[in-house]
Amino acid sequence: MSVFFCDSNCELWYTKVDELGIEVISMPYTVDGEERGYDMGRETDFKGFYDKIRKGSIPITSALNSTNYLDIFRPFFEKGEDILYVTFSHKMSATFQYMETAVAELKAEFPDRKFISVDTKSISMGAGLIVYEAAKAFKSGKSIEAVADYTRELVNHTSVFFTVNDLMHLKRGGRLSGTAAIFGTLLGVKPILYISKEGSIVKYATAKGRKKALELIFDEAQKLDIDLDKPVSVITADLSPEELASVTERVKERFPFKGELMVQSVGPVIGTHCGPGTIGLCFMHKKDKTQN
Hints:
This protein folds into 2 domains: 2-155, Rossmann fold, CATH 3.40.50; 158-291, Hypothetical Protein Tm841, Chain: A,domain 3. The protein is built from 11 helices and 13 strands. It has helices at 14-20, 46-54, 66-78, 95-109, 125-139, 144-155, 167-172, 178-187, 210-223, 241-254, 268-274, and strands at 2-7, 23-25, 28-31, 34-37, 60-61, 82-87, 115-119, 158-163, 189-195, 201-208, 232-236, 261-265, 279-284. The strands form 3 sheets. Strands 10-9-8-13-11-12 form a 6-stranded mixed beta sheet, with helices on both faces. A 4-stranded parallel beta sheet has the order 2-1-6-7, with helices on both faces. Helix 3 (66-78) packs parallel to helix 4 and helix 5 (125-139) runs antiparallel to helix 6. It is globular and about 55 Å long.
């Protein structure tokens, strides 16, 4: 027997997690002195979280340690189950060093058990789309080795582009210099960022205003030959209903896709680093981004 794991930084909505029987590792965040783990939207007060940031709260995130991973994985090994864990980008957290230490200890204790980890080299619904497709393959009865190979292929055909409302969140997280953040904020410049093929957040371009930034994102999706048969996700960090409706309608105009459109809230862990007003597009495409 085997079990499929993801972590909450993939942000796949809890109803789909439940539907596919995915085990979720909850990543922690702390706001106003209270630590919580993201619950995939099950009971999350998104507006309350982003309102706190707007009022001056500075949330923080932290990595799980080796003991956490031992506690999570050991019960499944004890039951004789193998594990496939599809993770968010290893480039974005030191937590996976602790995971590897824990897994090495467990493998010594349970030498007959298998543990396969696949790095999506993405985050938020970039990782979520990969988890969703991989979990469906797993549920169909394929071996964890076959699902892992399929997942690695999906990684090369999935992209995330996004723009933020407040550049100072990126500055605090080390994604942008202080001078650039202040200069950009004064001029109303919106940075367009993407997750590179190595799994890091990289600046793609800048645009004057959100509408122009979104059109550049849509243009890039077109260049990559967006797969209209696969699900697409619009990710949003507490946009107004009116703006979100406008963006969603524009996505539908640009891309007459046959797959599902998932309009997904950015959770508190990732929202800590991007801030309220962030919006992005996560999609699968026919071109292999490692070849670009």
